[in-house]
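FAQ

Q: What does a record look like?
A: Structure on top, sequence underneath. For example:
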């Protein structure tokens, strides 16, 4: 099967897939694969995209759609459209100070940027570069004092929302990273391949490792000494992420975090109910972009049941496979108040920096606006399953 992104890119990028192609050229192969790849056979990662394609929109005509409202309120914040830049670990490897560039683009577009625990630029650096503080994504380490310290730092810069990622008690195997020797000790041959890969991207070398200050984990500098290589970092994650976290720990998070709290990585309605009982403000239906457990359902498929189980009690967000404004409308129709996008911003920042992310978001907003008009809708906030052909039944049938 050929994807649109496999076409040679002789024209200006028009879609997230075009940015994927640009990124493929601009950054070393091992980094491209780190972003592009998923866990095991990547079946869930592909299903995130293909199931969204199966969800059909319902074309409705002859309604007055002269005014169309894409903005929405999420966790007390007004967003220009229901899109959020997802936390992407090591994002700052993709372009010079990439998290700062992406956060600036998000701010210009009126949508939030989520700073990952394992970002290259620190939360303070990102907050200094923008007027709107980023949301903060937390991984809990065995030494709880790191998480407590990170929550204090996020609070100090004014982060309004803590995104607690709960689907990574252990790391899913990402075979592309193993093949590229991003995991484990590289063989001599792998080192040569990596060296050739790097030298064939002189612009990236000039701008990122050389021009971009030393690459460190801005939020974890003291925590990860000696884990400066990807392989060292993976080993550090395995040794330090805490797999003993349970719903009872939400109370501990609440002791240290007074802002909004959402849990990211929910696929199961029963887990969503537990999250509500534990006192969160929202859930993110996510399979980590297909990077954790393969063979779990796509998020488009899992979302309606989770949304039904949650009802109006807390906010439901979702991510996975969203590439266009049409996908945004589909996810909202399936039950999400807003969506997070991961790879689209990673590709755009790798391909064209802040300008690329800004453009990618503009295109997404334009497409969402068109989709609203052609489904006969005047406001994204009012979109429900009636915007889908047969209520979106196709994705439920698999
Ligand atoms: C390269 C990469 C790194 C990621 N790092 C993190 C992370 O540090 N924390 C986190 O909660 N999710 C992380 N994710 C998952 C994203 O936040 C999001 O759930 C996922 O990318 C959504 O799928 P999409 O890429 O198809 O949009 C990462 C995803 C990618 C692609």
């Amino acid at each position: 099967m050929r994807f649109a992104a496999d076409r040679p890119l002789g024209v200006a990028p028009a879609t997230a897939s075009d940015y994927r192609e640009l990124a493929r050229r601009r950054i070393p192969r091992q980094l491209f694969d780190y972003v592009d790849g998923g866990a095991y056979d990547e079946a869930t990662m592909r299903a995130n995209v293909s199931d969204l394609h199966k969800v059909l929109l319902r074309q409705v005509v002859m309604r007055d759609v002269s005014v169309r409202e894409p903005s929405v309120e999420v966790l007390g914040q007004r967003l220009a459209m229901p899109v959020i830049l997802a936390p992407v670990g090591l994002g700052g490897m993709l372009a010079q100070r990439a998290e700062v560039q992406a956060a600036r683009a998000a701010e210009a577009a009126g949508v939030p940027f989520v700073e990952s625990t394992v970002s290259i630029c620190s939360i303070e650096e990102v907050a200094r570069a923008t007027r709107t503080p980023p949301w903060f994504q937390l991984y809990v380490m065995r030494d709880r004092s790191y998480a407590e310290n990170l929550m204090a730092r996020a609070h100090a810069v004014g982060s309004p929302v803590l995104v607690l990622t709960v689907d990574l008690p252990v790391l899913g195997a990402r075979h592309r990273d193993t093949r590229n020797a991003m995991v484990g000790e590289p063989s001599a041959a792998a080192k040569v391949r990596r060296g050739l890969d790097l030298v064939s991207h002189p612009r990236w070398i000039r701008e990122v490792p050389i021009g971009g200050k030393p690459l460190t984990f801005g939020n974890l500098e003291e925590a990860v000494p000696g884990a400066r290589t990807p392989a060292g970092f993976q080993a550090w994650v395995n040794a330090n992420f805490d797999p003993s976290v349970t719903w009872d720990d939400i109370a501990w998070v609440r002791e240290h975090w007074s802002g909004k709290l959402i849990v990211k990585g929910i696929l199961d309605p029963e887990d969503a109910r537990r999250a509500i009982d534990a006192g969160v403000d929202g859930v993110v239906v996510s399979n980590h972009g297909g990077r954790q457990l393969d063979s779990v359902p796509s998020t488009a498929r899992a979302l309606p049941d989770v949304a039904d189980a949650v009802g109006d009690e807390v906010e439901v967000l979702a991510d996975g496979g969203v590439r266009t404004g049409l996908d945004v409308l589909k996810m909202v129709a399936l039950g999400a108040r807003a969506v997070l996008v991961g790879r689209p911003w990673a590709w755009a920042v790798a391909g064209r920096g802040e300008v690329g992310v800004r453009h990618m978001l503009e295109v997404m907003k334009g497409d969402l606006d068109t989709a609203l008009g052609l489904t006969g809708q005047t406001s994204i906030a009012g979109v429900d399953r009636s915007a889908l052909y047969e209520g979106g039944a196709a994705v439920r049938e698999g």
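Q: Is there anything notable about this one?
A: The beta strands are 72-74, 77-79, 83-85, 114-115, 135-138, 161-165, 260-266, 282-285, 315-319, 338-341.
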